[in-house]
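Regression test attached.
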Amino acid sequence: MQRTRAGVAATDALESSPGGVENMALLETLKSCGPIAAHDYPFPGTPSYRKEWPHALLPRSDGPRSARTAPRRCRRIDLAGANRPARGFGFISQGFLLSSSNDYLAHSSDGSFEFTEIGLNFTLPATDRLTLGLQIFSHDLGPIGDYRATLDWFAVDYHWRDWLGLRAGRVKLPFGLYNDSSDIDSARTSILLPQSIYPAQNRDFLLAQTGFELYGYRGLGAGGGVDYRLYGGTIFLDTRPQPGSPITVVDLNVPFVAGGRFLWMPPIDGLRLGGSVQFLRLETNLLLTAMPNPVAVNIPAMLWVASVEYAVRDLVFAAEYSRWRVRTESSEPSIFPQGLTFSERGYALASYRLNPWLQAGACYSVLFPNVQRRGGREGREFDAALTLRFDVNRYWLVKVEGHYLHGTAGLSSSLNGNRPLSALEPDWALFAVKTTAFF
Amino acid sequence: MRIGAFILIGLAAASLAAEQPRSGYVLIGHPAGRASRIDRTFLVEVFLRRATRWPDDTPIYPVDLAPDAPARVRFSQDILSRSVASVRSYWQQRIFSGQGLPPPELSNDEAVVSYVVTHPGAIGYVAAGTALNGATPLDVN
């Protein structure tokens, strides 16, 4: 098919100029190039298609095909952003926790509404390959959060190819299947993720890092596909004193955090298999009640988790197993003991959507904070949970969840009047209700 | 002998079923697109935004119907092997962890056709019987 002169002129102009002008300016320039016939577009799949035309340029088949006045100042630009303005999403949650005896996450034994989350994010696809985004987040969960608004994540994302992209900024940590979406109540059936691997009280340590991330997806044809993420950076931590704690954190730094996640999606719909590993080092100075000078404590740690998920139709089954290796180095071993600890964690969960407005879920989670000392109530925690999720409409849900727990390993001593974990009630129950609105 | 006959009948039935057009919706692409067939695995990657470019490196613009549209429900079950609600959960995870945006959701079939026709690289689906207005119908391997 013969291309019109307008198309040729515009193509020449686009070819001869560098990209990088604003979309509006380009649109104005293109208008001055004259109307362009639909058949001016080379077909996708031909080498000239990608080379010659910005893809969001709309063809005009109803105008005259002559544009002898086409100026030479037309520039080439990728126009994806022109058709994809910034998009905003948000959620707001309010929960209630009630436990039979021990305080968990909040002062739950008396019932606590200190279980709130608010998130608002904006994403701007600036070009086909470049995306800017940020999320403002505020929460309150017992002693942590206090409704302070923080930038949960912010990133410049350059998606060079599907198999290689780069994010820089504050990026959520891809640890296990759900760490990077642990705040997102609407994305799962349960209220609490399995706390052995995704402990809510460690959110600040485990949720995001400031640095960079390389990511990609590669289809393997008959072999399915692989999804991978590699990251490195640091974590900025808040050192606010915990009320009632005998230890004051003078400062706390994370010189580095690095790791990655690899997920293989075999050619079975909905199946994901993979693993994650994370290395980090914490350096802190602690002031103990009885000590005039702070104690320097360094904690290098290595965490890994093996994951499997099968999500097909309305069924989700997932299981993960994890071990965390934590070494403690202390300047005053007699006061703050040194050591090497391996903890063991794992869970299995299943959920099923019974109909458009009702989902049911069950989870069993185990935690051994020190594999050398599994005995005693403080050396383990077994958590069996049942959840019902009601989707009132597309933007609002309500969940109810019951837990039966054996062991106190997941509890906080400071939240329980600084009583040792071995003195807390070994068998206890937790009831939770949560409602979330999202858009 | 009987077993062989049963196997033959079974294979024939399976073959016929495989050849049946996917009822309830029609997959469509931009009029300038050359492809008339698309691999289902690739289609899943496109609509979950794992694949964002055609093989010639041009951007792909998938577009969805509203969550309660019958064609969306059928497409989601047939192609993505997930319920619409499950796909929405997938996108909730991606959106709020900063990993990507879902395809735009348009309110009706005509809007999807219009989007696909006016966006080179676009791909969508509409209810069977919808006027395609020049959009290219695509078969799924």
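Expected vs. actual: identical. The first helix of chain A runs from residue 5 to 16.
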